[in-house]
Amino acid sequence: MQCRQQNQDDSRFCYQCGTGLSDVPTGQTLEEPTFRATEADVDLWRRFIGPNADRYLQQFKKFGPEQNPKFALTWNWPAFLFISFLWFLYRKMYLYAMVYAIGPMVSAYLTGDMTSGIVWSVMAGATGNYVYFWHCREQIGEIKQKAWNNPAGQEVALKETGGVQSYVIWVGVFFYLLFALVMAKMVQEGPPDFKPGPSKPVKPAASTTT
Where are the domains of the chain? Predict the structure, then answer.
């Protein structure tokens, strides 16, 4: 029997009659919990993310509740197509930017395979949204803890740790132009010719007399 008391979505017990709300009536299915936040928190997340905030928030819902997120496979095209370490740098994830800058070079050096960087790009595309979710979660948590009652302090912290670094776009354009020029030059010159060098004359075998 229901008392028709309206309760909050995350309530575990009815405020009126005390009935446990976690018990799902027969015939109904329990929905998978998703990323939820108050309107103030959503606004804080949106301001922290900056460009394409709504698209990222939509992706973040796939990781479950904010308190207990779990990895879910999503795809981030900018992290895959844009040079991976530049995307992390663009989003102010400096540690991951360093990892994705050094990692492909180390892999190519150890394996001798220059195409190993593609593997790193695929990893960035498949995990970029989840890594960015954790980055936002941790940084926003610190902002709320340090400046929860100081709007001016929140705004300063958001500008320092959130948003994007627009100059990185021009760095990426430079890298792509440089890559295009190198490739054009290689195509123009054609594959290198490996001509065998002049062979050394064979010394005649010393004759022996008996």
Answer: 39-186
> pTM of this prediction?
0.69
Which tens digits make up the pLDDT trace of 126-143? 999 999 999 999 999 999
- How far are the Cα atoms of 33, 61, 94, 129, 153 from residue 123, in angstroms, in the given order? 26, 20, 17, 11, 36
| Percent of the chain predicted with pLDDT > 90 | 40
Burial grade of 127 (CB within 10 A; 0-12, 13-18, 19 or more)? middle
- From residue 1, alpha-carbon distances to 4, 5, 163 in Å are 9, 12, 50
141 and 121 Cβ atoms separated by less than 8 Å = no
Amino acid at 192: P
Rg (CA), the chain: 29
Q: What is the pLDDT of residue 24?
A: 45
Q: Where on the phi/psi map is residue 4: left (φ > 0), alpha (ψ -120 to 50), or beta?
A: left
pLDDT of residue 53: 96
- 177-204 average pLDDT score: 66
Which of the two residues, 63 and 174, has the higher pLDDT score? 63
Please answer whether residues 79 and 67 qualify as being in contact, where contact means their C-beta atoms are separated by less than 8 angstroms: no
